[in-house]
Amino acid sequence: MDHREALIAASSHRVRQGGYAPGIEVNGLSLTYPDEPNALVDINLSIPGGEVTAVIGPSGCGKSTLLRCFNRMNDMLEGCRYSGSIMLHDLNILDPATDVTALRRRVGMVFQRPNPFPMSIYDNVAYGPRIGGVRRRRDLDEIVENSLRLAALWDEVKDGLGRNAAILSLGQQQRLVIARAIAVRPEVLLMDEPASSLDPISTLRIEELIYELKQSYTIVIVTHNMQQAARVSDRTAFLNQGQVIEYDVTDKIFTNPSEPATEDYITGRYG
Amino acid sequence: MSIKPTLETPGLMANTVNEGPVSGVMTALTAAATFLAIFSVILFLGFLLFIGGSWLLEAQTVITAGGVEERYNWQVLFSGESELSVTGGIFPAIVGTVVVTLLMAVIVAPLGIVVAVYLTEYASDGWSTQLLRIGVQNLAAIPSIIYGVFGLAFFVYVIGGRVDALFFESNLPDPTFGAPGLLWASLTLAILTLPTVIVATEEGLSRLPATLREGSRALGATRVETVLYVVIPAATPSILTGVILAVARAAGEVAPLMLVGVVKYAPSLPIGLEAPFIHLEQKFMHLGFFVYDLTMHAPAGDGRLGIVAAAGLLLVAVIVTLNIVALLLRMSLRRRYVQTGLD
Ligand SMILES: Nc1ncnc2c1ncn2[C@@H]1O[C@H](COP(=O)(O)OP(=O)(O)OP(=O)(O)O)[C@@H](O)[C@H]1O
Ligand SMILES: [Mg+2]
Questions:
Q1: Could you give the CA distance from residue B102 to residue A201 in angstroms, rounded to a whole number?
Q2: Closest CA–CA distance from residue A117 to any residue of chain B (Å)
Q3: Which residues fall inside 5 Å of ion ligand 2, going by CB?
């Protein structure tokens, strides 16, 4: 496997830029939708850099909403208001003066269902770099290959980079959008139930991929799958009704949670 | 009180029984209407094909510079010899029809895309947007001659007059763009077909999943970049559908064009092999008008029906050809989108 080589190449590229995987500090974050005043209530989280943090909780508790605060995707929703601060190293993400396009190049996102663009595999991966101003074919070729290798998809698609992304299987598409996200060399990767539409084999591949990626990225993953959270994450936050009920190292959350509500949810007694 | 339900029950039953014959009649009517529709299309095309086609293949004697010669009617029709010599034959009319329609398509496509993108991607969902949308949809119901009047008043007199005063002062009082011509005819047709393109494009845009736009924005693309590089390419098949419908409608319109640029006889083609290649200010000939003119003015007698049917046949052939070209274009594009469910 030459994943590691690719990883080293990519990370050395980042080191040259002076980048690293920064932590995220959430302080007093509250968010309201027009018809949901308590979508998030006074969230405080200290997410360490270079680790995988899982966010779990019942449906509608605000996991996706929280994740979408980290790259300001909620800005696109009309009537969504938030307060508090989220620090990405020394950048206040929620500051109105923050350049969101620059922010989103530092904080990438992978969605629940794979959403490849209706264009070739190559163009999908090259989309972010092109938007960012990379024009030279040789540079783009290198970025596309490195990103696809990192996403463990290169060997499957290298002979048909010009084919439409739609012909890939769902599992391959999800790895493609991960490659697309890492092609802009972000520091943080947000994943909202990245494996929920995949079969067990593809899910396993995504989990292996997360394990590989965490060496150079700060990863925040939302999942409904308790085993998955236990397998891939270093820390776990349990959310309920817009509040953080418990946040600790994953081992502790799954073996010896402090809050009865956490235990109820993990053991399936919730609701 | 116990009688009431028993009274109602037979009524209900009668209703359900009645539905049998009623729906039977409806089915029969629908079938008859369908048959009539198909029959009239076959009759219509058959008329054009047999009368027009056989006239084209007949021979006649014509007097040329070289003496008396035998010519097939289609040769006569294209060369403009014989009684058609005044109009210069059918060829300039075919060229005029194709040029005005293609120019219309080139104008209406970007215009329609811009309006549709504004309506779906930018405008808020308020009452003013709805009003605009309803207005656009109802534009399609205005009789086409009204568009001709509008084109003459607005494009020819207002805009054309200004253009002449500003850029072609030396030619005045002879108008250059201040008279009906190819550009104004294409613009008039573009306004006429604009609703078609807008509605088709809007439908295509609104069918795109929101995650497509979010995926692009999450990579740091701005709204404009997302629209240009993801949304519009993904909606191309729908946009082309709209343009195809626009071409189909525009190629058959004659009435408005008679006011803004079509003439019975134009001394030269609106396109040429030398720069500027296309003469936007020129008046031009059109197959639709050619058919009308022939019907009214062709010499009475055996040949009259034949020549009119032949010209009609050619008009239909040109429209069908334009549509087939557009359809092929869309099909080759659709192949790229088919699996994404974005078509
Ligand atoms: N665009 C929106 N407009 C209004 N309310 C919203 C919007 N998105 C989410 N909500 C509401 O905010 C709350 C949190 O939603 P969110 O999508 O964050 O939940 P979730 O934890 O991700 O749920 P799931 O596990 O089902 O994905 C819910 O009550 C939801 O109805
Ligand atoms: Mg969610």
A1: 53
A2: 7
A3: A 64
Residue B9 maps to a domain: no
In a domain, B79, yes or no: no
Identity at A177, one-letter amino acid code: V
Domains of chain A, by residue range, sit at: 3-118+187-266
Domain extent at residue B291? 88-339
Note the ligand closest to the C-alpha atom of A66.
1
Tell me if B1 is assigned to some domain.
no
A77 lines ligand 1 (CB under 6 A): yes
Q: How far is CA A177 from the centre of its chain?
A: 11
The predicted-structure confidence for A46-91, as pLDDT tens digits, reads as follows 999 889 999 999 999 999 999 999 999 999 888 899 999 999 988 9
Do A8 and A150 form a contact (C-beta atoms < 8 A)? no
Task: Using an 8 Å CB-CB cutoff, list chain A residues near B207.
Answer: none
Give residue-wise pLDDT tens across range B133-146. 888 888 878 888 99
Nearest CB to A131 within list B209, B220, B234: B220
User: Does the predicted TM-score (pTM) go above 0.90?
Assistant: no
Q: Quick one: CA torsion of B158, B159, B162, B167, rounded to 10 degrees?
A: -160
Q: Is residue B49 part of a domain?
A: no
Number of structural domains (chain B) is 1
How are beta strands A52-56 and A235-240 bridged, if at all?
parallel
Yes or no, beta carbons of B233 and A119 under 8 Å apart: yes
* Nearest residue to A89 via CA among A29, A44, A54, A47: A47
Q: What is the CATH number of the domain that holds B287?
A: 1.10.3720.10
Instruction: Please judge whether A131 and B209 are an interchain contact, meaning their C-beta atoms are less than 8 angstroms apart.
Output: no
Four-way CATH pick for A3-118+187-266: 3.40.50.300, 3.50.20.20, 3.30.565.10, 3.10.20.30: 3.40.50.300
Q: Which two tokens stand for residue B304?
A: 């009259």
Q: Using a 6 Å cutoff on CB, does residue A82 contact ligand 1?
A: no
